[in-house]
Each structure stands twice: as C-alpha cells, then as structure tokens.
Amino acid sequence: MDEQRVDGYATAMFEVARVEGSLDEVEDELFRFARTLEGNDQLRSVLTDDAVPAERRRGVVGDLLGDRASPVTANLVSLVVGAGRARELPAIIDRLVQRAAAEHDKVVAEVRSAVALDDDQRKRLAEALGRATGKSVEVKVVVDPSVLGGLVARVGDTVIDGTVRTRLDQLRETIR
Question: CB within 8 A of 26, min separation 6: which ones?
C-alpha cells in the first residue's frame, strides 16, 4: 500500500467534508462503512474486483449507502471505489478519522461492543479512556456480536479488554 496515496486521498476527503460543513457526520459514516467493508467478504470482493466495471462498483456503493449516509459520504466512497482504490479504503478512512480527531486535539478509541452505546455511555467511556490513557479521546463504536458482553477498546497501540470472555478466561486460569 502506498502511504503517500493513502494520505493524499485521506487529506482530500477530509478537506471536502470540512468545506461542506459536515466533517463530523461524514467521518462517522465513513468509519462505519470501513468497518462494514472489512467485515463483509462479498462486498469487499465486488468493490475490489477490477473485472467489475467501475460504474457497477459505484452503483453498489450507491445502493448500499443510498439513504443511510449523506450525499457527501456516498460521493467520497464512490470516488475512491471508482478510482480502483477500494482495497485501500479502510486505511484511507482510518487516516481521515485520525486527522479529524487530531483537529479536535483528540485521539481515536475504536471500541468493540456487542451492543450499540448511547451518547451518555459514549461520553462516560471517553472520559474513562481519557483517564486511563492520559489523552483526550474520541470514541468510535463498532458493534461486534462476537464480543458477547463488555468492551474492547483500542487507543493507538493500547488495548483495554474488558470483555466477559476475557474475564472468564482469567477466572479459569486463576482456578487452575
């Protein structure tokens, strides 16, 4: 993967969203799209297949995002997919998310949870992670049913695993 190209796309997408006045919304929608793309082999296969015409790939993006995302988000994803860069899209989006967080003097915490978190839970989690890391934190939640219960948070290279599965494994080791 060409880091300069990833940075270039991320910067361009960031600037478009900022100029359109919808950076926070677009950043959040792009983050969710990147996680969907990473978790769906069929979608990733269609969007990254050079044998599928660019127009068809853009059509898939339009069908998928349609009324679920802002026109700015849909257009940005369509642009990257149409340019044949869908493989790099998660990295591009992650770079954009980091840049948007840095714009607010924050770091991004990717949190995996079995259920969606409400605004109050996100706020309390951001505060707790901020105390744990010594940084101002912006929480991005990925709903992941494999978590079962609890949370896994990644802030940069730091991983905080508070899942039920991990607690049970620790308890099992203690009992042995």
Answer: 13, 17, 20, 70, 72, 73, 76
Q: What confidence tens digit (pLDDT) does each residue in 123-141 have?
A: 999 999 999 888 899 999 9
| Inter-CA distances, 87 with 45, 55, 66, 150, 164, Å | 9, 17, 21, 31, 33
Domain interval for residue 11 = 3-100
Domain boundary among 83, 100, 117: 100
Beta strand spans in the chain (E):
107-113, 137-143, 151-155, 158-161
Both structure tokens of 61: 């993006």
Handedness of CA 86, 145, 29, 139 (dihedral sign): negative
Would you mind telling me the total number of residues written for the chain in this entry?
176
